[in-house]
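re the bet — no i am not wrong, look at it urself. input seq straight from the record:
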Amino acid sequence: MVRLQRKQRSKKQSKAKTPTLSLKERLAAKRKATQARKELVSTMTTAVLGAIFVGIILGVVGGLKTAVGGIAAILCLSFSFKYPRPGLYAFLVYVPLGGTITYYLGSSPVLQLAKDAFYIPVLIGIVQTCRQRRVPIIIPKSITTPLFILLGFCLLTLLFVNGGQQLSALQPTSLRQAQANEQPFLMGILGLKVFLGYLPLIICSYYTIRNQRDFWKFTRLQIIVTLICCGLAFIQYLMLRAGICEGTRFEEGAAIFKASINNRCFVGGGLLYNPDEGVIRLPGTFVAPWQWGWFLIASGFFTFASTFSDPSRLWRMLGLGSMASVVVMAVVSGQRIALGIVPVCLVILLIFTGQIVNFRRFIPIGVLLAIILGVAAINNPMVVQERVDSFVGRWNASPPQQFIVQQFGETWREQDGFLGNGLGRATNSARFLGNTRLIETYYPKVLHEIGLFGTLAFLALVTTLTITCFRAYLTIKDRNLRTYAACLCLFILFISYNTYYYPLDVDPVAVYYWFFAGVALKLPEIDKLERLTKRD
C-alpha cells in the first residue's frame, strides 16, 4: 500500500513538473515534424529511383547479384549520409552479419568492403556537422600529437617504400620483373585504410550518442545482435552435427584439416568440421573461424557489462542470456582462443568492476549462469572434454609466448630500412594487389610494414588512448555507467597490447575497438548531463 502511494505521488509530481507548450510552440513543433516527413519522402524517392537506374545498368552488365548489390549500395550511401545515427546503427548491425551476406551474394573482394557503404557517408555527415558547429574533430585531444606522428611515418612509407616499389614494378628491365603485375602503391593505400581507416569511429560514436537514452538503446542493440549471431551459429553447429551439412568429413589428405569455403553451412564462410578426426572450427556469421572467435571475445566484455549495469531487469536477463550464449559458443565452435580468453576475461571483469562482492546482484546472476552452463555441460560432456583437450594440446604444441617471440625475431631480421617493407605487405585483404607475407601476430605485422619508429608511434597512440579512457572512467559517478565504462576500458586495454593474431586488422575488433573508445570517452559527459537533469 505504501509503495502504491509513493508511485502515485511520484506520478503526480512528474506531471506537475512537465511543462505545457504554448500554441505557438505546438504549431512550430508540428511544422518541424511535417518538414522532416517531407525530407524523408524526398530522400527516399530520389534514392530509390537512382538505385533502380544504377541496378538496371549493373544487371545488364553483371547479372542479378551485381544489380542487387548496386541497389543496396546506393540506398545505404544515401540514407547513411542523410541520417548518420540510423546509418551508424545499421553499420554496427551489418559488421557481424557481413560475412554471411558476402557469401550469399558472392565472394568478390569488393563485397568485403560493402560495410563501408554505411560507414563512409556517416563519417562525412558527422565531420560536416562538426565543422558547422565548430566542435573538435579529433577526440580526445590527447591523441593529436601521437596520431600525427604516426600518420607522418605512414605517409613516408607510402611515398618512399610503396612508391619506390611501384616505380620498380613499372620498369620492364627491373630486377623485380616477376612482380610487374603488382600494384604496390594501391596496396599501400588499402593497407593504410585497414590500419587506421576505422579510427574516426571515435568521433562517430562520441557525437552520435547524446544522452543516456541513446547509450542504453545502443547497448541493447548490441545484446540483440549478439543473441542473433550466436543463435545462427548454434543452428550451423546443429546442422553439421545432424549431417545436413557435410563439413570436411569427406575430404582427403590435408584438406581434412583446413577450413574451406566450399564446405560452408547455413551462415558465414569457410569452416572446418570433421568429428572423426576431432577437429572443428566454425565461422559463425563471419568470413573466417578466427574472426568469429574474436567476436566472441569482444562480446564477452559487452554482454557482461549489460548483464550487470543495465537499469532494466528485463535487459539484464537478456544480457545474461547473451553472455551465456557467448560462453556456450566459445566451447561449441572449437575456437581455442575464445575458449581460453572468454572465461578468464569474465573473471577479471568480476573482480575489476567489484561485482563479485555485490552479492545482491552477483549471486542471482551467477547462479542462473551456472545452471545454464552446467546443464549444457552435463548434456554434452564429450564436446566439453574434446574442446579442453584441443586447447591444452595446442598450447603444449605451440605456446603463444614462444610463437610471438619467434615472429618478432623473423620480422626484425627481414627489416628493409627504417620505414619498413611497405604498407599492405602483411595485410591479407591486400593480397590481390601483390605479394603479401602472412604474419600471424599483430605488432610484428606492424613492424614489417612501417618499421620500428612507426610501430613505436602506434604504441604511443594506443597507450595515450587507453590512459585517457581510464581517466574518463574514474570521473563517472553513476554506478551503472561506471560499471559499463570499466568493462570498455578493460576491453580497450586488452586489445591495445594484444599481439596474438591480428584482430585490429579485421572485423569485428577493427570496428569495435575504435567505436567503443569513443563511447568510453563520452560516458563522463552523459553522467554529468544526467546528474544536472536530476538536480533540475
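see?? Confidence is low (pLDDT under 50) at residues 10-18, 174-178. told u. also The first strand starts at residue 272 and ends at 274. so pay up
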